[in-house]
UniProtKB/TrEMBL annotation:
Annotated segments matching region Disordered: 126-170
InterPro entries, A to Z: Dimeric_a/b-barrel, YCII
The name this protein goes by in its record: YciI family protein
Organism: Nonomuraea phyllanthi
Domain of life: Bacteria
Amino acid sequence: MKYLLLIYGNPLNWEHPLFLRDPRFLALPEEERETLTARATALHEEITESGELLEGRALGDPAHARTVRVRDGITATTDGPFVEAKEQLAGYLLVDCDRPERAAEIAAGIPDARFAAVEVRPVEVRPVEVPPVADRPPSPAVAEDGGERRERLRPGPGAAPRARPRRSPP
């Protein structure tokens, strides 16, 4: 089963790995900081070698994030995540484990769990159902003959702007 480990941190100093800049980590005796860092490195090597680690990414500074909401056809975009908390999503690991307890064990070994939080979420494995092409309404960006329309399409009031089709390089 796949699990998403959502790693949270304090965005006051957004340089990864975050735990290395956390004031609580910095307040630890040097020997304990070295041990904790070595454990994090060993955990990463262990789950990489075992094949449990499928992917992991750090997220950019929340100061550069945008939150988008659509209500009654009106799109509202605000700067940053809409969270009234000190801890914000900092990154994730996607792991494949036999048991949920193993995913929780990996999460507990991530140093950020000690200073912030690591959330463990099972990943749904059922496929997303997409209707067959024949059952879908025609795309407004595609002409009846299947070619690209030349006229410029304008979204209705309050609608999100459409992405432009990508053109192949010459």
